[in-house]
Each structure stands twice: as structure tokens, then as C-alpha cells.
């Protein structure tokens, strides 16, 4: 049964609701309501019908994923494929802002067509209009209603058939030919009457054998037939019979014995064909089974209910849905109909009965929403629909269905609550609302006006927007806007300026949508306005920051690249040269570290001012960041020699200007520049290549002692190219295992080997053995030192494991140099612990050598890492001691085991008193700190003897062995 139809056009024309949340769905609570709503919801942009949000129920209903829907339209997805039908269905939404209870057929994913009832409302969210569509699948409800009507038709047709059959039986009773047969005394022959011969299909035969007669009975009925033939007790027997034409008939028979003189003489059979009767009964049973099957699959509960004036009631039929809905079985309901009413909430029972009386009095369908008494602690909302039919005896027969609408009710309450909360928020919005008539004159403006600094909006009433004294809009923009209005188009964020009461300008962004009457007549516009002055100012600030340095006001890298591109085009057009000067301030970091960053910023601003005074107005001075500046000189000559001379002159002028003392507060500071210069001509080089050349020349100036300038030359490029090639070869070497470990012995005072130092070597496929002094710095700069260092540690641990299996080598240690970059890794300690656990190497035989420079930064972190590893037995040595920043304050806190005297002191220990004094000082210091000492670079017996007399007990150098592969190592365990 269809629900009572309702108009899709509302009685009033509501304005679009307004949301102020930062996203289309507003605050988190409202997003949750939206997402978990049991009713499918899709949010689309009103301007182009693009879907911007859907909830979980919408995905379940349509079969489309949220990612498929967002950015698409219903027409593009194909589930509302007919764009014209969609426009027609949403006509009331476009005109009045709302659609109520419209039913359409949509195509879900996979091509499944579903009947959907939808409501829609137009919303305003952050100045953008959206349409919210609430979809409910009513396919099952319609199927149930159709099934109910089909069941009613089936019952009517079945009753009619049965009535006809009764009349047919009555006629047959009067005129039908009833056949008889009589058997012989021994029962082997049957004599047939003419009527029976015709019914049974024996033609004109008057006598047939009992066997021939029995063969016409279908096999499954023969045992029953023979039992009745033997008993001859008059029992009615129904069986199936094969006619001579091949047709299968239903027969009903009774068999008796004829008694003459008290003795049974013959057997008599009376036979009647009942095929028509049996077919009618079979049809009725099939129709009833179909009705039960349909009703059991329909959602909710279908019923046939009869009530009499005396209060007697009876459910003649109720579907299986009553079990889930009311917790009763169909048998319980048919046995005691009052149980259904006991499940209805007391507050709703009388209203339900009143609706039934009203339905009967006005001959209209009964429709009522009511609640149930809580079942398992939960009450349900139900919707009942039924058609009353007055019977001849004065009773009323109700045929209908009841569906569970609990989820819809809960969703409706949540949505109403959400809408109320959203409405309360919009009342606090700083936006304002306006309306215009068909002539585009303001007829209404209201909203929070205090937030827009007392603009006299009332003075605008009766005026068009372009007549209200706005500013900031060109005539061309006004013409375009008027054409848009005349075409009745939606517009967004049309920006104009109004003057506040204090005379200051205010930027406003106006959005609007056309309004039409129910007859489609254009009536004007309505929309919202917003103060966007802060946004416009922010946009201007962003544009300024995008192209200019915030500190100095100079062009930044982005603007420099743009101007350099134009300068190269100018060079190509007029055949002239230009130049780039890359300027870096010498020792700028020291100033920041000593006087603070605020002083550093002050210096940079003064440098920017001096640079600007050194060049022409057509040239460009830019700041790339930090203490790096670039000066671009344009049109400095047709000949390269002339251009170079002019560029050098400007460079010298800059050096002289920047060398003057700077006044930084009460401090006087001197700062010099290093300048790299490169010429450019036409489009011979790319922008990146020019900057790279200038940068290389600047580093050459620093290498030359700073406070100077250098021109780019090919040798610089060659060095950079060689370094890049070396980096590439390093990476290939890592991939192809081109590295190996050499070991140099460490001996005690008796020249016994106590351990070795692992030294990395690289065998290049074409260059042969490459010096570590050449490839280690490149590995450090590129980060390749990390995988290289890890490989060295793995190889050393593997060698320790091999040595631990031999008595002669199991006490040897291996020292591994760890780079600062490797040691500063966050998980360095975990890496070492994991490596030792995985390889099984003895941690007491592994020694890690660190340099002093590593300890200058993150000193506390270094103590933590070293302490964690030393706790399991790993030893630590401070390599190249005396060449760096030696401090007793950190030496006494570090968990060290050993100091290594750098070979630069050992080399001249016999000829240079200073080196000898340094060596003795280190040995005395180590003794006072209870640290061991290893002297590196010992090449002669005299050096060994001097160090031995001074207290050194461990040595390393060519005197005891050169670094060699492990298989060439001569070991003698100490």
C-alpha cells in the first residue's frame, strides 16, 4: 500500500541554511552524526552537482565507495544516469530550497535498480551552497505492498475457483456417469458397465482381466489398490489411473462384496473420476504457499485482521516478520490476537484505535506510527498501514502491513538536533544576509552588523550594487557581473570595497543565487556577504613574501630567477653580456654564535643597503638566504673582456664597501666577503648552471683566503665533475662489493700483537687502489659513509667470530673508526647491539675509535650512547688525540678506555722538543685518568724506545707491520 502522497513543494520558500564550520560538515560531533546516520546522505555542491561528501549508509545503499563518489556527479557515476530526470525531481529544491518525499528509481553499482524515497535541502556552508540529499530505499516496502495486493488477488481468484468447483461438483453429482465393475467368483475377470468403460478408457469392452485392469493403476498406488480389492470393506480409495489415450486421471473408488444367502458371491466396485477436483485443490494449495512465501520475505509484518462490534478480534493471517518485530510467533498471534495489542505502548494504544475508527468512518486507509513496549529493554517505532473492508455480518476486515521505522525515527531526531545546533551557530556568524528584487535592487540586508564596523547598510536599500558607491571594481568587471545577473546565474565571492563609518575601506565578498516563483518567474537574488579585508591583506602580504626577502626587503631567489631569465633574453636580443656575483659573508656564523641572531640580522640589513648602493638601478641585488647574496649585472658590454673588467670593478667596489666597520648596537664589527663571478651571454647556459658556476667561484675565493673575488674557470668545473664521478663510483663500489678491510697490528711493550685496527680500502675497477684520503671525505659529504661504516662493522664482527674459534687469536681486539655522522644516528646504539647479537661476536673484543671533533656537539647524547655500549663490554678509544679541542672536563666524564697519540707528534718526537713534550704530556694525562695509550705512526726503534721510556706501553706503525689483508696478517697472541 502506498503511503498518503505529499507535495514535494513546501508551502513557504525557505532560504538556504548557513554553516560556519571550516569544512562542509562542520564540527566533529556533527560529522559523526552525518557519518553514522542510518539514512543515506549525499552532500553536493549546488553550483555543479559535484559530490563533496557521503556517509557510510550512502556507500552501503549505492555500492559506490566514498573515493569513487567525491569529485563526481550522480549522472557521471551512473546511478542517476538521466540528467533530465534528476533536474525534474529536484525542481522544487532549485526553486524553494527543499524537497519532501519524492520517489525515484536509481541505478546502484552493478546495474541494480532500486526505488528510493528522498528528501533534500539546500544549505549554505562557508559561503558556498550545497544540496543535502537524504535517501531511503523503499524497494522492499513497495514489494511488500505489491505482494499484499497480489495476495489479495490470489485469494479472490482462489475463492472464485473453489466456488466454481463446488458448482461443478453439484452439477456432476446430478448428471455425471458413475461407473461400476463386477468381478467373477475367482476374481480374475471384471465385467464393466458402459459408463465405467468410457471413464476408464476401455472403449466398448465389457469384460477385462483383473491383471489388465490393475496395470492401468499407476505403480505407486497398486499396493494400496490390491489391499482395498482384497478387503472389500467399502473404504474410499483415491488413486491415479492411466487412460488409454495416455492421460493420467484421478479416480475415487469404493469396493464391496455382494452377499447372497449369507455367502459372498461377487465383488462390486463403484468408480468416479475426480481429476478436476484434485487439480482445483492443488491450485489452491500452490496459491496459498506462494502467498506465504512472498509474505515471509517481505520486510516487516503482513497481516489480515478482523474485528467485530462486540469486541471480538482475530488475526486470520500474519507473516513471519511478527517474530522480529514483536517477539511473537505467527501461531501465538493466531491463537490469541490480544497479545499483539499488549505489545503496543500504553500511551499509543488509544491513538492507534482512534486512527482505526477515523479510517473506517471516512473510508480511508489506516496509517499510524506507534511504539512498542520495551522488548529486551529496547522500544521500537512501528508504522502501520491497512485498508478496511466492511463485511456482510458487520465486522471489519483489515489487510495491511507494519514496518519497523526505529532507525528512521532516531536518524530524524539526530538530524533535527544537529540542524538546531547548526542554526544556533549561524546566528553568531559575522556574515550578513541580503536579498534583491528582479531589478537587482536591495530589499533586505540583515545579520551581525557590528562585526563589519558599522557600515550603513540601510543606505543601500533600494539601490543596485553598482549604484551603492563601491570601489575596487573595474568597469569591465561590473559589465561581466551584470551579464551574470541578467543570465540568472549563481555567483560566488564577487569582491568589492565599501567604506566604513571611519572612512577606512572594507573588502566584502558577495555570493548569491537566483530566486524563482513556483511558476518559474525570476524574482531576484538572495545571498550572503562577508568581510574579507583581513584575507585580502594577507594575500597581499603573501605575494610580497613570495618574491621579497622578509628581513632585508631584497628580491628573493624566486624573483631573482625570474629577472635572470629576462636578463638572458635581453642578452640574446641585444647581443650583450651580463654577470652574476655570488657573495658569501666570511665568518658570519661566529657573529651569530657570539653576539646573537638579532645582531646577525642587523648586519645582514646593513650589508643589503651597502650592496644596493654599489650597483645601478637596472641591476638586481637579491638575498638567497642566510648570509648569501647575489648581484646580477645587466648589459655590461658586447665583448667578454669588457664585461669581465666591468664585473671585476663592481666586485672590488663591493669588497671595499663590505669591509668597512659595522655598528651593531654598541659593538663595532668587521666582516669581509668572498665573491664568485661568472659571465652570462644569451642562452649558452641554463639558470641552474649559471648559479652553480658562481657558487663554485665563490668557494674558490674562500679557498684563496677569503675577502677576495674569483672568476669561474673550467678547472673549478673539472674538480666538481671529478668529485661527482667519484661519488658515482663509490655508489657502484657499494653495489659490487669493491671494498675490503686491511688490518694493522697493535703491539704491547714486548712487541706482542694484542689487536688490530680495521682500515677501509677500495679497489677501483680501472684506477686500482684509491687512497682513503681521497674517497673518505666524499663519502662523508654525500652520506655514503653510513652504509660504508655499517659494512666495516659487520666485517669486523665476522672476523672477531672467526678468531674466537682459535685459541691463538681469541684474545685479539679489533678497533674500528666510526665517523661523526654514523655515531650521531639516533639508533646507532641499537644498530651495534643488533649486530653483535646477530653475528655472535664478543663485545669485549670490539673497540670503537672516535675523534675529538665528534664530541664537541651533542656531548650528553654521546655519553649516553657510549655508556650503553660500554655496559656490555664494547671499548672506546679517542683517536688522533691532541689535534683537536682537548678538554679535561669532557675527558673525565667520557667512558673511554684509551687515547691514541696522533702520528704527527710521534713523527718528530726525536728531533722536535715540542712534539716530545706533547707526547710526554699526553702519557702523563692518560696515567692520571687511568687510560691506556696507543702511539700511532711508530716507524723506528728510536721512536719506540723514547715512547717506552716515557711510559707508553702500546704501539702501532710500520715498525710492527703495515696494513694488510687478513690472510697476510702475522699474528702472535699476547
Describe the structure.
The radius of gyration is 52 Å and the shape is flat. The strands form 7 sheets. An 8-stranded mixed barrel has the order 30-31-33-34-35-36-37-38, surrounded by 4 helices. The protein is an alpha+beta fold and 974 residues long. The termini are far apart. α26 runs parallel beside α28 (828-839). It has 6 domains: 17-137, PAS domain (Beta-Lactamase), CATH 3.30.450; 161-280, 2-Layer Sandwich (Beta-Lactamase), CATH 3.30.450.20; 301-401, PAS domain (Beta-Lactamase, 2-Layer Sandwich), CATH 3.30.450.20; 438-539, Beta-Lactamase (2-Layer Sandwich); 548-712, Alpha-Beta Plaits (2-Layer Sandwich); 726-968, EAL domain (TIM Barrel, Alpha-Beta Barrel). Mean pLDDT is 83; it is low at 1-23 and 161-176. α23 (687-703) links the parallel β28 (673-681) and β29 (709-711). The chain contains 33 helices and 38 strands.
CATH class assignment of the largest domain = Alpha Beta
Helix fraction, binned, reads: 40-55%
Radius of gyration in whole Å, from Cα?
52 Å
CATH fold type of the largest domain:
TIM Barrel
Supply the number of structural domains. Answer: 6
Task: Explain the layout of strands and helices.
Blueprint: E1 17-19, H1 28-36, E2 40-45, E3 51-54, H2 56-62, H3 66-69, H4 74-77, H5 83-89, H6 91-96, E4 98-107, E5 113-125, E6 128-137, H7 139-175, E7 179-183, E8 189-192, H8 194-200, E9 207-209, H9 210-215, H10 222-231, E10 237-242, E11 248-260, E12 263-273, H11 275-297, E13 301-307, E14 313-318, H12 322-326, H13 330-335, H14 338-342, H15 346-362, E15 366-371, E16 381-390, E17 396-404, H16 406-426, E18 432-436, E19 442-447, H17 475-486, E20 491-499, E21 505-516, E22 522-531, H18 533-547, H19 557-574, E23 577-585, H20 588-595, H21 597-613, E24 620-625, E25 628-633, H22 640-658, E26 662-664, E27 667-669, E28 673-681, H23 687-703, E29 709-711, H24 714-735, E30 739-748, E31 753-764, E32 768-770, H25 772-782, H26 785-803, E33 813-817, H27 820-823, H28 828-839, E34 846-851, H29 859-870, E35 875-881, H30 888-891, E36 898-901, H31 903-907, H32 913-928, E37 932-936, H33 941-949, E38 954-956
Parallel strand pairs: 1-5, 28-29, 31-33, 33-34, 34-35, 35-36, 36-37, 37-38
Antiparallel strand pairs: 2-3, 2-6, 4-5, 5-6, 7-8, 7-12, 8-9, 10-11, 11-12, 13-14, 13-17, 15-16, 16-17, 18-19, 18-22, 20-21, 21-22, 23-25, 23-28, 24-25, 26-27, 30-31, 30-38, 31-32
Amino acid at each position: 500500500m502506498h503511503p498518503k502522497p505529499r507535495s514535494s513543494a513546501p508551502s513557504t520558500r525557505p532560504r538556504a541554511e548557513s554553516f560556519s564550520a571550516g569544512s562542509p560538515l562542520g564540527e566533529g560531533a556533527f560529522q559523526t552524526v552525518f557519518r553514522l546516520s542510518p539514512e543515506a546522505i549525499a552532500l553536493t555542491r549546488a553550483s555543479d552537482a559535484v559530490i563533496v561528501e557521503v556517509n557510510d549508509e550512502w556507500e552501503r545503499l549505492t555500492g559506490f565507495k566514498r573515493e569513487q563518489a567525491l569529485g563526481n556527479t550522480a549522472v557521471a557515476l551512473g546511478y542517476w544516469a538521466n540528467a533530465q530526470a534528476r533536474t525534474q525531481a529536484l525542481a522544487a529544491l532549485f526553486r524553494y530550497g527543499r524537497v519532501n518525499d519524492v520517489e525515484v528509481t536509481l541505478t546502484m553499482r552493478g546495474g541494480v535498480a532500486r526505488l528510493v524515497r528522498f528528501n533534500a535541502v539546500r544549505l549554505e556552508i562557508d559561503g558556498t551552497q550545497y544540496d543535502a540529499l537524504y535517501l531511503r530505499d523503499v524497494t522492499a516496502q513497495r514489494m511488500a505492498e505489491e505482494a499484499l495486493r497480489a495476495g489479495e488477488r490470489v485469494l479472490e481468484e482462489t475463492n472464485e475457483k473453489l466456488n466454481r468447483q463446488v458448482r461443478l461438483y453439484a452439477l456432476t453429482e446430478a448428471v455425471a456417469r458413475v461407473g461400476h465393475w463386477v468381478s467373477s467368483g475367482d476374481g480374475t475377470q471384471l465385467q464393466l458397465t458402459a459408463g465405467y468403460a468410457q471413464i476408464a478408457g476401455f472403449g466398448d469392452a465389457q469384460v477385462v482381466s483383473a491383471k489388465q485392469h490393475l496395470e492401468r493403476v499407476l505403480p505407486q498406488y497398486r499396493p494400496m489398490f490390491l489391499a482395498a480389492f482384497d478387503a472389500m470393506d467399502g473404504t474410499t480409495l483415491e488413486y491415479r489411473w492411466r487412460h488409454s489415450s495416455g492421460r493420467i486421471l484421478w479416480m475415487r473408488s469404493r469396493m464391496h462384496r455382494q452377499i447372497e444367502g449369507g455367502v459372498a458371491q461377487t465383488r462390486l466396485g463403484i468408480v468416479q473420476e475426480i481429476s478436476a477436483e484434485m487439480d482445483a485443490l492443488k491450485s489452491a494449495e500452490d496459491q496459498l504457499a506462494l502467498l506465504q512465501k512472498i509474505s515471509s520475505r517481505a520486510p516487516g509484518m503482513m497481516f489480515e485482521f478482523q474485528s467485530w462490534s462486540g469486541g471480538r478480534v482475530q488475526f486470520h493471517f500474519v507473516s513471519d516478520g511478527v517474530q522480529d518485530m514483536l517477539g511473537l510467533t505467527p501461531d501465538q498471534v493466531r491463537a490469541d490476537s490480544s497479545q499483539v495489542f499488549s505489545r503496543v505502548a500504553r500511551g499509543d494504544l488509544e491513538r492507534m484505535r482512534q486512527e482505526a475508527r477515523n479510517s473506517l468512518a471516512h473510508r480511508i486507509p489506516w496509517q499510524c506510527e506507534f511504539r512498542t513496549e520495551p522488548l529486551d529493554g529496547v522500544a521500537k517505532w512501528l508504522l502501520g498501514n491497512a485498508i478496511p473492508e466492511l463485511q456482510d455480518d458487520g465486522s471489519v476486515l483489515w489487510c495491511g502491513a507494519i514496518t519497523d521505522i526505529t532507525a528512521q525515527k532516531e536518524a530524524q531526531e539526530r538530524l533535527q538536533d544537529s540542524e538546531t545546533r547548526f542554526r544556533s551557530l549561524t546566528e553568531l556568524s559575522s556574515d550578513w544576509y541580503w536579498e534583491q528584487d528582479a531589478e537587482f535592487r536591495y530589499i533586505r540586508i540583515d545579520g551581525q552588523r557590528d562585526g563589519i564596523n558599522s557600515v550603513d547598510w540601510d543606505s543601500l536599500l533600494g539601490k543596485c550594487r553598482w549604484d551603492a558607491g563601491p570601489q575596487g571594481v573595474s568597469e569591465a568587471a561590473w559589465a561581466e557581473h551584470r551579464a551574470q545577473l541578467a543570465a540568472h546565474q549563481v555567483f560566488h565571492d564577487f569582491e568589492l570595497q565599501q567604506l566604513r563609518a571611519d572612512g577606512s575601506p572594507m573588502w566584502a565578498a558577495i555570493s548569491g543565487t537566483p530566486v524563482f516563483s513556483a511558476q518559474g518567474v525570476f524574482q531576484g537574488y538572495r545571498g550572503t556577504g562577508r568581510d574579507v579585508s583581513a584575507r585580502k591583506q594577507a594575500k597581499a602580504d603573501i605575494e610580497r613574501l613570495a618574491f621579497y626577502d622578509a628581513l632585508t626587503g631584497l628580491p628573493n631567489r624566486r624573483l631573482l630567477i625570474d629577472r635572470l631569465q629576462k636578463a638572458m633574453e635581453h642578452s640574446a636580443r641585444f647581443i650583450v653580456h651580463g654577470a652574476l656575483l655570488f657573495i658569501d659573508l666570511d665568518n658570519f656564523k661566529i657573529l651569530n654564535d657570539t653576539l646573537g641572531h638579532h645582531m646577525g640580522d642587523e648586519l645582514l640589513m646593513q650589508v643589503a643597503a651597502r650592496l644596493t648602493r654599489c650597483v645601478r638601478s637596472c641591476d638586481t641585488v637579491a638575498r638567497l638566504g642566510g648570509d648569501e647574496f647575489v648581484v646580477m649585472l645587466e648589459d655590461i658590454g658586447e665583448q667578454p673582456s669588457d664585461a669581465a673588467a666591468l664585473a671585476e670593478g663592481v666586485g672590488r667596489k663591493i669588497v671595499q664597501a663590505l669591509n668597512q666597520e659595522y655598528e651593531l648596537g654598541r659593538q663595532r664589527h668587521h666582516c669581509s666577503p668572498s665573491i664568485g663571478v661568472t659571465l652570462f651571454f644569451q642562452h649558452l647556459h641554463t639558470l641552474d648552471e649559471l648559479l652553480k658556476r658562481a657558487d663554485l667561484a665563490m668557494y674558490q675565493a674562500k679557498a684563496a683566503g677569503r675577502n677576495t673575488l674569483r672568476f669561474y674557470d673550467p678547472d673549478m668545473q673539472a674538480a666538481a665533475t671529478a668529485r661527482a664521478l667519484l661519488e658515482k663510483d663509490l655508489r657502484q663500489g657499494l653495489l659490487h662489493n669493491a671494498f675490503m678491510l686491511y688490518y694493522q697490528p697493535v703491539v704491547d711493550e714486548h712487541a706482542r700483537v694484542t689487536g688490530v685496527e680495521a682500515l677501509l680500502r677500495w679497489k677501483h675497477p680501472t684506477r686500482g687502489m684509491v687512497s682513503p684520503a681521497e674517497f673518505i671525505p666524499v663519502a662523508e659529504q654525500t652520506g655514503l659513509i653510513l652504509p660504508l661504516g655499517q659494512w666495516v662493522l659487520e666485517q669486523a664482527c665476522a672476523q672477531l667470530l672467526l678468531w674466537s674459534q682459535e685459541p691463538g687469536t681469541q684474545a685479539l681486539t679489533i678497533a674500528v673508526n666510526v665517523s661523526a655522522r654514523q655515531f650521531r644516528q639516533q639508533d646507532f646504539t641499537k644498530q651495534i647491539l643488533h649486530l653483535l647479537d646477530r653475528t655472535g661476536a664478543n663485545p669485549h673484543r670490539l673497540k670503537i675509535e672516535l675523534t675529538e671533533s665528534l664530541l664537541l656537539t651533542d656531548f650528553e647524547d654521546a655519553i649516553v650512547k657510549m655508556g650503553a655500549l660500554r655496559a656490555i663490554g664494547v671499548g672506546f678509544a679517542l683517536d688522533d688525540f691532541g689535534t683537536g679541542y682537548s678538554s679535561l672536563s669532557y675527558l673525565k666524564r667520557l667512558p673511554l678506555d684509551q687515547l691514541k697519540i696522533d702520528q704527527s707528534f710521534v713523527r718528530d718526537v726525536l728531533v722536535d722538543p715540542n712534539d716530545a713534550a706533547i707526547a710526554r704530556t699526553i702519557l702523563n694525562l692518560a696515567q692520571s685518568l687511568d687510560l691506556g695509550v696507543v702511539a700511532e705512526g711508530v716507524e723506528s726503534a728510536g721512536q719506540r724506545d723514547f715512547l717506552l721510556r716515557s711510559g707508553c706501553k702500546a704501539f702501532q706503525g710500520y715498525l710492527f707491520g703495515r696494513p694488510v689483508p687478513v690472510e697476510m696478517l702475522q699474528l702472535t697472541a699476547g
